[in-house]
# Entry
Amino acid sequence: MAEPAPLRRRGLSVRIKLTLSYAGFLVFAGLALAAVVWYLLRFVPQGNLQIIGEDVDRAWAPNRSDLLRVFFPAAGAMLAFLSAVGLVGGWVLAGRMLRPLSLIDQAARRIADGDITQRVQLPGRTDEFRILSDVLDLMLDRLEQQVGEQQRFAANASHELRTPLAMTRTILEVARADPDADIGTALARLTEINERSISATEALLLLARLARSSLELPIEEIDTASMIAQVIGSLESVAARSGVTINSTIDQPVVFGNRPLIEQLLSNLVHNAIVHNSGPDRRVRVVAAPGPQSTILRVENTGARVDPLIVSTLTKPFHRGARSRTADSSHVGAGLGLAICASITRVHDGELQITAREGGGLTVAATLPSRAA
# Structure
């Protein structure tokens, strides 16, 4: 827990300090000028002065005492005037100069209250205050991005771990209810589910790090046939319960990418295709096809017709779309499956395309660049 800010004794504001500085500078300049004039007056003769060649009654010249008698009151009045001008002008000028700092302070207070979407955005040409404002806005952009990534990671992790945890609970309940159950089979199934959960968690952690840093993504050559077979095998029970038939076509033997993330991508696509399936003939088709300097992993499923206007929103987090019926009526998703797929495709510099099939259902294609690209 962060420690509270230390209590400070209240002091003079920066505006008052600047005002006093401006006024003090003017008074100092006036005193310096008065000192120069007083020094020069020392060269004026003292005593009665007589102007030669003039009428004695009309000829008169001021001596040093006369000049000093006039100079000191005038200098005092001028110093008082300079003090007043310095205080008033300094207060106005300091206010104008510090106005950008006041705007930054107001924005910082709103941010401290929890509004991290607040930005300073000072207008005008570049100066020290504008540079500070731009740096603060950039810092807030990165902070907001990291907070959003943490929130998405928490939501994605809960979405991905809910299914294996539910399956673990089901296996344990069945084993506890049936004394004659095969413990070895249950343990093997639990081990498999645990390994998949660990793999999914590590993949999500890697995805979160990649989203906020320049961490290099470990790429490897993946056998598409074995990967697709593994994903389909892990979802066979879900497909059987939903009455869905899965088949695959392998036209591209390999794909380049991070294996845990690509497996997670394909698993999410196939799982969505199963649970969002309907009709008398429920089918899912998984295709690995070559593209121009890329590999296309495509998953097609039958089902209800989908409004093309809704298709573009399906990759948004927590958006489930409009569906009249799913094969697995007990499935309640958080609307993150396709959002995770889009993120995984994006970190591979690929593209995720979703199109509505004419006969109903969806076609989702993940285009992943090849190693050469």
Remarks:
- The first helix runs from residue 14 to 41.
- The longest strand covers residues 283-291.
- The chain has nine helices and seven strands.
